[in-house]
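Reopening closed ticket. The problem is back. First fold of the pair:
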Amino acid sequence: MKKELFDFLNMDLQFIKGVGPVLAGRFEDVLGGRRVLDFMLHTPSYIRARGVTENVLTAEPGDVITIPLLVKSHKPGGTFRGHRRPTQIICNDKMGNSVVIQFFNVNFLDYWLKKLPIGQWRMVSGKLERGARPTINHPDFIEEMQNADKIPSIQAIYPAGEGLTQKVFANVRDQIFNILPDKISGETEPNVCEFFDALRNVHYPTSAEELSANSTYMVKLAYWELLAHQSAIVISRRNRSDVRNRRTVRPKKYDLLDKFYAALPFAMTGAQQRTVDEIYTDMSKDVPMMRLVQGDVGSGKTIVALAAAVKMAETGAQTALLAPTDTLAQQHYAKLKPLCDKIGLVCDVLTGRDKGAPRREKLISLRSGRTKIVVGTHALFSEDVEYKDLGLVIVDEQHRFGVSQREALRSKGNNPDLLALSATPIPRTLSMTIYGDMDVSIINEKPAGRLPIKTTKLPIGRIDDLIARLKLQIDAGAKVFWVCPLVEESETSDLTAVQSRYEDLKKIFPHAGLVHGQMDKKQRDKVMAEFADDASNMKILVATTVIEVGIDVPKATIIVIENAERFGLAALHQLRGRVGRGSLQSYCILVYGNNISEEGLKRLEVLTQTDDGFVIAEQDLIMRGTGELLGTRQSGWINYHFVDYARHRDLFKLAASAARDMVSADSWTKDLMFIFDRGVGISA
């Protein structure tokens, strides 16, 4: 890949015209990065056809139409007796039928009135609603008649986020793909041109079929993505067995394990002990350990990880535990430190919020070898972080980190062992191809005393009855999670906003808490910590899916998931795992909307019938392939961009076979590993 193209793909989105640092930050939240490449790999999830009509009566409610309208009058909105009234623009179509255009945001009143002047024709495109009169709420496009061709007949719809409209996505896409040909010109590798041609076709679909998993371009992209992943696995395997990567087995210096087991307030399950034995066997070899521990939510992976860290500490070496979020890192630290104190091990936490003198003290302790176990986020592999002897790297929520991220931490030591943890069960039919560079241990038992979570489903119409029952439970001492899928209300969506639900519940539960992804991290962590505190008056926490991973509140015994039909099975199972973490009976209530589909109902039935994460993962694979959340394709076991587990199963075998036959990585394979963040140290 040419350096010019490489640099363009790595360019920060803020330098694309019309983006800037604020929008680039919003893109990062949605894309998981803010490079041009991150945007290009974030493809549309569906298309919206905009049929042109001149007679509103020929369209059905719910249709997205494009129609010429003559503006007749304005009815400014505002607040009247505490009720918000929309701004209404009264129009006629070419047949004389009345059409109302409504806007609910009064802050932009002057803008809309200028956009739709009385006596002028405008081409308007949006979703048609039927009330007393045909209505279009917040049109997607309003253009002067001479600019009507600016309204696309086929619109690609991207998974978006707060403050990112489809127009913003289209603008960035158009600029990127207009610049791209100049960056590709002169490429000698034909696969590079073919790859970006397939990507262009997916970003500019002309039919719904072109975005399906089985379309020509999607199959090409899925194969290349799998080839990148499988090639990285093969290279990793070869590097492990390379004689140059053999290491001297560390001798035992201290007796710590007996103290550790004596300090545990419980006995390990058979599955935990079996996994620990497998880990200890790996650690005694001259080849670095690469082991994945799969365990369902609440199965006790953290204690297994600590047992490995204590084993490493017996040799005098250090362990770094990498967590995906500050909150999860702090919770791991709170759980591990008391046990470490009992056996005389120095345990610390290092995250991005550590600054100044406290951070310097922690770095000195790591460099000297005094700190034997450190828990943290990406800060653990920052440039200024040095370890005296890093012997073990533990990666929690493995699927949230790319190969390059985990290898960046491993590079801080001399061939350290790697232990990866995953609470997202992977169907056994796929585990070996997905994690082919690792040995796999499965913890398939729950700790003694844990009761199965009782899961029920409930129609939205019975929400008042549910709240009344919750009040009785909360008065009796229960703690409750209430999960909603959106942050703010949308005029075009029937999903309950977390802010709106919070305001409703706060009238009944004055000490209710609220957390969502758009809050300041410190404020969010503060609210979560207050909810977890047994002495706190906060008994109900209203939240988005930010609580999906790593929130440990043993006293929480009830979780309500609103609009549950909009979540994938994997996400629902993870959310359900926020309760049932103590010895008390716990409950999960799946509240579903009036327009639930047959498939949505089937997903909820699976949840009510089993709490076995591996069974659920198999069902997810059979039903949909990936655990989608509100239409987002990236979710499930690994954050693939184009791969569909159910529809691309044959591609796994093809890519794995091609990677195994590879003598050494050619330039195209290296390009792929860079594109999909599957390689280590790959550059232009």
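Second fold of the pair, where the issue appears:
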Amino acid sequence: MDKPEKVLLRAKITYFFKETFRARSKAEYKEIFSRGLNEDNSGITGAFPWLYVRAFFALFILFTINTLVLRLTNNTLYVPSVTFLGGITFTIPFIVLLFELYPKRNLSLFLILSVLVGGGTAAGVLSQLFYSLINTDNPWVKAVASGCIEEFCKIIPAIAAIELTKRKNPYACFLVAASVAAGFSVIEDMGYIFYYSDKYVNYYSDVQATIALFLERGLSSFCTHILWTGAVGWAYCMSKKPFGSLWIFMLVASAGLHVCWNLPLEGWVMVVDIVLCVIVAAAMNIAIVHVSRIRTLASEVDLTRMNERIILEAKKMGESMRFKNAGNLTFALNCTLLSVIILLLCSLPIGVEYKSVLYDTKDEFISFVEDGFNLEADRGRKMKDPYNPENNFEERKVDGELTYVVQCDELDGYDGKYYYAYYVSSGELDSISVELERSGYSSRYYCAEYKFESETVWVFEVNTDSLIDFTPHKDGTVTAILDADEFEGYDILIGLCAAGAAIAVGCTVILTAFIIKLRRVKGEYD
């Protein structure tokens, strides 16, 4: 015979599944959006989380649609919508889930979102003020500084929000502090997505980088800012004194986790570091949420009777309800999988007009532009006597007067010839070119000015037929925008389209089977 704990666990999973995916009435939507706004906000909600799933699917699909439009049209007017949706798709549903897990009815979703916007903005402003006082290029110092500064700057508006809301329940304090951190995270995520997606506004938006950051920043929101600050807010309420030892410990722990997360590590050491940070933060906050929720429920209701009701509800859930929930889940998975395929299509270089290539160093990029030739521009070369024909390769005259000369020279390291053009009247150097033989043909290539952050370099434009633009970065890397010569990726395009069609057809068949089965089932349970 199964133990009561196993029976209760299975019943809770079944009940949670049913409550998550069953259809909702207008009254239920009204209840959750008006919770905490009515005159009577006492008691327990008694509802299992469900709104967060709908919020996530809606935002995820909207992000996918806007990203697809940006990818197909390259219309940069869609960059703001992609940036906004990318910043909130994971974070907002997560906060909604934490709100729904809060069992009491004295907090409103409107209040939580207001704290998210206002508190997150305040935390962002404070952090930038502190960052303005620190000027260092050392990545280890930056990691320590960012972890300490951001955790300190988030907890200040979090404590202010806790005091203003006058909620002394530990879970309520956790939720308010987590909302401030969520607002800070949204601002930060939108900044990263915007910076990388709109970098080449005159050419194309880097959709691949946008999607990568959307997933990276979104998934990390489950184990970073929100949990770190939420734990400190919980400790603030749990401490006997406002800033007791438990609060100090949690603040130090959250800052320590933040510093470890930011450390400039590489390879398997970085992986181990991130995994440990995730495990510690997740375990700590799951314990906080679970214990705080159970204690809140225990103070209001009889948990034994509530568990018995859940077991009874799970047993009463008939075949009809199981098929309904399975159908809803199938539809949700269908939309999700199709969205994933669309995002893959957007992120892969299929038929792109332009492509980006990242060069690790400035010299590597220059070598690409000069096609590997070892060339050198002598910008300090003085014009030789222009009136001595032996010095001039080419002469230009106006009304019989010599005005412009091109002089030929040789430099060490290259056995070809360089050509220097001067205005005779001023002696000013106009241009430098070099004669090279490529693919059996000799041509002259000119030297142009290239700016890399604070440095200016003269580069011979030998291999620039496909170069559209380039962007130097502070870390010394250079991103080049190149012309994609021809359509590529037909096989990938066909494969992904076939997979999408197969998923759509398969889910349609399954949903049809569920509908037919439901019509045959009698005694439906609602």
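Update: turned out to be a display glitch only; the data is intact. The radius of gyration is 32 Å. The chain has a mean pLDDT of 84. Please close again.
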